[in-house]
Design goal:
Layout (H helix, E strand, L loop, with lengths): L5 E7 L4 E10 L8 E5 L11 E6 L8 H10 L10 E9 L1 H5 L2 H11 L2 H6 L6 E6 L9 E7 L4 H12 L7 E11 L8
């Protein structure tokens, strides 16, 4: 039976999202593909897939109860019709990060890097979902997924710029920034 927590992202010839740009921010990039397909893990990657990454949605690790309730009241769901742009940003952190204790990682992640506070500045315009994949043997630790309307694209870019200069990002050893637009977009100028 299909596990709904598992999502497979594949770089394919035909899919629901068109890949506008795929850029290696740090470490190796991913092979170029015209489209992205999102399926469940039970669906085998298409024969023409040039890459395939699988992640699982999981419990929170660092978020406090207060932060969670602020996020819940501010965030928007995925799948909004106006959110015709998306970003898939696969990330791997280095061994030094994973050698830290949970409380040390929280200190860096939020007390010093302000990851959640920075991200909150961009809600509800940016909808997000975090997929974990460190323990499944893939090339990344996280597959981060974001959806937004074209009007929010410059704010999204500002947010990633702010995050990438934080202490947390010193532990990122591979990051690929894949930008997408919906193929069935009604706005031909996108
Ligand atoms: C839309 C604004 C954003 C918000 C509100 C946000 C919020 C969060 C929260 C609450 C967590 C912690 C989940 C937990 O407790 O386990 C998290 C984790 C994470 N976020 Fe963000 N985030 C945002 C944007 C981003 C962006 C733009 C990136 C990538 C460029 C990103 C990458 C990550 C990664 C990799 C993790 C996992 C960190 C780890 O477990 O070591 N986030 N985010």
């Amino acid at each position: 039976m299909e596990n709904p927590a598992i999502t497979r992202f594949s770089g394919v010839a035909e899919g629901e999202w068109c890949i506008v740009q795929s850029q290696a921010i740090c470490g190796d990039g991913l092979a170029q593909a015209p489209c992205l397909a999102m399926t469940g893990a039970a669906t085998a990657p298409a024969a023409d897939a040039v890459w395939s990454l699988t992640g699982v949605s999981s419990n929170i690790r660092y978020t406090t109860a207060t932060e969670r309730s602020r996020l819940t009241s501010a965030q928007a769901p995925l799948g909004r019709p106006e959110a015709r742009l998306a970003a898939l940003i696969p990330i791997r952190k280095n061994a030094a990060w994973w050698e830290l204790a949970q409380d040390e990682r929280r200190q860096i992640f939020e007390e010093r890097s302000r990851h959640i506070r920075i991200g909150m500045d961009y809600l509800p315009a940016i909808a997000r979902k975090l997929h974990h994949c460190r323990d499944t043997g893939g090339p990344f630790d996280f597959l981060t997924w974001f959806e937004f309307a074209p009007e929010a694209e410059s704010d999204f870019n500002k947010m990633v710029d702010r995050l990438r200069v934080t202490e947390e990002w010193r532990y990122v050893e591979r990051e690929v920034d894949i930008r997408l637009k919906q193929l069935n977009s009604r706005d031909a100028t996108l």
